[in-house]
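Running this now, will post back.
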Amino acid sequence: MKQFRRKPHVVSAIQVDDSTFDDDHPNDQHIADPSIVYDPKRRCVFIQTPHGTTRAEIGDWIVRDLNGDYYPCRSDIFDKTFETI
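Update: finished.
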């Protein structure tokens, strides 16, 4: 089996935290995109992806990929995959 390295690329991301839901709506923690719905009652974010609707919880990251699509990423996976530039 061949080995491959992920090509380096820059993504935009924001972490879902308490201020995402506790501050006024919309706020700086919100991404203005129709594919993203913030649910302050459930304290989660619903994200429409090309593969269906996904859910981000407090602590998760919302990442914008190279195609401009958003997806959730658990914090532990995010920390292993990305670094701040």
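Residues 12-81 form one domain. More later if anyone needs it.
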